[in-house]
Amino acid sequence: MELIDLTHTFAIPMPLYPGDDQPEIKPTATLSADGHINSYLKSGLHVGTHIDAPLHFIGDGKKISEMPVHQFFGRGRLVDARGELTIHEGLLDKIDLKANDIVLVMTGMSKDYKTPKYFKNYPEVTEDFAQKLVDKGISMLGLDTCSPDKEPYDIHKMLLGNNILIIENLTNLDALVGAEFSVIALPLKLDAEASLARVIAGVEN
């Protein structure tokens, strides 16, 4: 099995969704002064590659720490949405979806990750696309964009309200074209509505 890293490197400065604060990584100890290196991290939870849990938009929704661990592992399904103005149901016509699958949407936007365009001109998920994912009972939807939608974030609410986690800011999805793969998307076990995550695909040889 070949392992493909689908995670953007967390490095300062970070590309930011409009309104988010820039994270900080500060040294608190150095080899020359202290004999070891320590660092301090200050960051919002919706920066870089991360996973949204239901509490992000659902008042009584689960925190990321409350999600069952099996939900972070699953069979991957790739949706090729390159060149599409929206991420619509028709893109799922030839994809065999099953309960607990992890659906990854490739728009090609990851190439613009460090530009302002990335946070402005991304294709949005349509309601019929999201409804099909709900009907099939998938575990997670991941995208190589900063969000599945824009305000008032109805797609966020629809998916998270059905306990479908959302992975944002993926990369390297082109490596999965035509492949059978599984996904491991591990967040920190935070008592919060989201978490930074390391997302990896295991491609069958």
Task: Write a concise keyword list for the protein shown above.
205 residues; mainly beta; Glucose Oxidase, domain 1; 7-stranded mixed β-barrel; 3 helices
Protein model, in words:
The structure is a single chain. The protein has 205 residues and is mainly beta. It has a single domain (2-16, 45-203), classed as Putative cyclase (Glucose Oxidase, domain 1), CATH 3.50.30.50. It contains three helices and twelve strands. It has helices at 31-34, 127-136, 154-160; strands spanning 2-5, 24-29, 38-42, 50-52, 73-80, 86-87, 102-106, 124-125, 140-143, 165-168, 181-187, 194-203. Strands 4-10-9-7-5-11-12 form a seven-stranded mixed β-barrel. Helix 2 (127-136) runs parallel beside helix 3 (154-160). The longest helix has 10 residues, at 127-136. It is globular. It starts with a strand and ends with a strand. The model has no long low-confidence stretch (mean pLDDT 97).
